[in-house]
Amino acid sequence: MTDVTITTERILELIAAYGAEPGAWPEDERAAATMRIAEAPNLFATALEEARALDAMLQMESPLEPSSGLSDAILSAAPAPRPTSNSLLGGLTSLIFPQGVRWPAGAALASLLMGLVGGYAYASTGVGYDQADAAYFAAFGIDAEEDWVVME
Amino acid sequence: MSGISELDQITRAASGDRAAQAALVNRNMPIVFRVAYRMLQDRAEAEDVTQETFLRAWKALPDWQPKAKFSTWACTVALNLCRDRLRKKKPVLMDELPERVDPELRPDESLESQQALQRIDEKIAALPERQREALTLCALEGMTNIEAAATMDVSVRALESLLARARRSLRAGLGADMAGER
Asked: Which distant-in-sequence residues (6+ apart) come within 8 Å of A120 by Cβ?
């Protein structure tokens, strides 16, 4: 027995929408509908016969298949396997430190590089030499330009 | 699906698992293609829509929310793409519809059944767009009413109304053929 009650009109609606095959009807109404039809088959005979004829024609439809290359084309655009963060970091580390990471040596190398780069940048401006020369000449009371002229 | 849930398969596909991607495509691509073909009546266009649907799927998978089955989601995307294409096409009068020849017909099928099949194809193709969608999803692809309604973004009652009208139109158009089926 089913708890769902169903009217004659509703069964005719189901047949009109989904056809004669109970398997195509909504699951929650199927049992009640089939039971009601079994109780009064004459009420639904015409509707079922018409629906069955159309169902048979729709079933004649042969399944269409896409071309064989479509699947490959779709899969070629699928996401590639993601590298894990460990393997990415590991690869980068081994590239920079092929002999393995040694932090004290790495820190010393970094300090040396920073000193060289900083010193070069400071020297390349030329400002430092002018200031140093001016301080030197001032300390010894030399007017640099005049002395050079005198010396000539 | 032999012990692997669809969500597991989607998660694996999103992370680049080739086997999971192939399984997802093999299981869902045919229905997407058939729905697109029913709507567009053109194999090349249906394949374009199928490909575009899966391109969108690949982008969507990393953030996938299991609110619906993948096939429902994919058919919704495909239907939207079909609607866009149909809107861009100029209307074709019924007299101008080209005769379709189904290359899948087997040689042993009788001429009569071939002609009947062609007539039903034409009648389905001539249905209004929404009725054709409803009939394709429910009657031809076997979706449940809830899945089909979700795919079309309509209520179940609205779906039933579309189905009933589609079947009524087909019965009226195929009267003589249907008499032979009884």
From this structure: none
Domain that holds residue A126: 101-151
- Using alpha carbons, select from B129, B116, B113 the residue that is nearest to residue B165: B129
CB pair distance less than 8 Å for B18 and A78:
yes
Say whether the ipTM exceeds 0.85: no
Whether pTM exceeds 0.95: no
What are the sequence ranges of the domains in chain B? 1-91, 104-182
Q: Chain A contacts of B110, Cβ < 8 Å?
A: none
Residue A116: its pLDDT value, please? 78
- Asked, for residue A95, whether it belongs to a domain, the answer is no
CATH class of the domain defined by B1-91 = mainly alpha
Question: How far is Cα B76 from Cα B122, in angstroms, rounded to an integer?
Answer: 24
| Burial annotation A37-76 (CB, 10 A radius, 16+ → b, else e) | beeeeeebeebbebbbbbbbbeeebeebebeeebbeebbe
| Residue B143 CB neighbours (<10 A) | 24
B138 neighbors B145 (Cβ within 8 angstroms):
yes
Residues of A in contact with B120 (CB under 8 A): 57-58, 60-61
H/E run at residue B180 = helix B175-181
pLDDT for A93 equals 53
Chain B residue closest to A78 (CA)?
B58
Q: Give the C-alpha separation, A17 to A29, whole Å.
A: 13
pLDDT at A152: 39
| Reported CATH class of domain B104-182 | mainly alpha
How many other CB atoms are found less than 10 A from the CB of residue B180? Answer: 12
